């Protein structure tokens, strides 16, 4: 094999030992380092799953990619490219992992592991448990919303998992997260805002259709129908093509019909307490 055919993900020392590449070529040809000692063809799309593929080349037997990292294979690809890769290991496997991994010691049954893209990942239901147990509640619920929406897991199974999990590690966090799951949410930011509201005692309705005299004016991310208050998250897609024009026209129709609209961006999500305060203040205003 020549360097021209060195594609995909590979361990650098192995490629050098096999004579496929030299150390100098490894440094100078633009190969992307995923974690220490593991590289990828620069033409591959760099996302969290690619980093997981790199870590998978180093995993000892009995371990698996899990938690928020495994969720990328189950309908919730929300982990960022540089987020640590979550690895689960049983007690009898001693492995700390390279920098860029988070290794958790736990009970791990072989039946809870499946292979996806040549990567050992935890099953959807096991992933759901670990996401709820390991992640902050807003992050966890966003992933679980997406997994249920994608059909990877069913909400009744998640609810049954809570009932069957007495005494299991992380059960308190799981019991907090599962009741908040709502697959109507269509984005992670929307889920996070909704969770922040619910935990503050507010009850927004996800993906609410605003109708006047039977005419659909638009669907909003979150709504307080009685107060005629809508919450809209505007991600990067809002500025693609003519989307911004369509969104602005829809919001103008809502305002003309007597609705108030709070428009949020990624910057607002850095202060969810402040977002909830804004919503509460609008709800307190007379219509």
UniProtKB/TrEMBL annotation:
<dbReference type="InterPro" id="IPR011335">
    <property type="entry name" value="Restrct_endonuc-II-like"/>
</dbReference>
<protein>
    <recommendedName>
        <fullName>DUF559 domain-containing protein</fullName>
    </recommendedName>
</protein>
<feature type="domain" description="DUF559">
    <location>
        <begin position="220"/>
        <end position="283"/>
    </location>
</feature>
<dbReference type="InterPro" id="IPR007569">
    <property type="entry name" value="DUF559"/>
</dbReference>
<dbReference type="Pfam" id="PF04480">
    <property type="entry name" value="DUF559"/>
</dbReference>
């Amino acid at each position: 094999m020549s360097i021209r055919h060195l594609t995909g993900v590979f361990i650098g020392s192995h490629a050098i030992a096999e004579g496929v590449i030299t150390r100098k070529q490894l440094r100078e040809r633009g190969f992307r380092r995923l974690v220490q000692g593991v590289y990828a063809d620069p033409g591959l799309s760099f996302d969290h799953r690619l980093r997981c593929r790199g870590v998978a080349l180093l995993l000892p037997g009995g371990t698996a990619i899990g938690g928020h990292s495994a969720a990328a294979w189950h309908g919730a690809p929300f982990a960022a490219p540089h987020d640590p890769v979550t690895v689960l290991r049983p007690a009898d496997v001693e492995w700390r992992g390279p920098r860029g991994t988070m290794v958790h010691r736990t009970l791990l049954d072989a039946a809870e592991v499946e292979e996806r893209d040549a990567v050992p990942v935890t099953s959807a239901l096991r992933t759901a448990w670990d996401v709820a147990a390991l992640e902050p509640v807003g992050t966890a619920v966003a992933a679980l919303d997406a997994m249920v929406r994608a059909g990877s897991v069913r909400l009744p199974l998640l609810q049954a998992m809570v009932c069957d999990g007495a005494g299991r590690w992380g059960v308190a966090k799981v019991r907090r997260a599962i009741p908040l799951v709502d697959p109507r949410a269509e984005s992670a930011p929307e889920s996070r805002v909704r969770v922040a509201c619910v935990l503050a005692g507010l009850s927004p309705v996800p993906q609410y259709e605003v109708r006047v005299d039977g005419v659909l004016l638009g669907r909003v991310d979150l709504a307080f129908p009685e107060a005629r208050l809508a919450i809209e998250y505007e991600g990067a897609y809002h500025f693609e093509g003519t989307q911004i024009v369509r969104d602005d026209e829809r919001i103008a129709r809502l305002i003309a019909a007597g609705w108030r609209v709070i428009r949020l961006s990624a910057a607002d999500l850095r202060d969810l307490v402040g977002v909830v305060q804004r919503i509460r203040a609008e709800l307190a205003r007379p219509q």
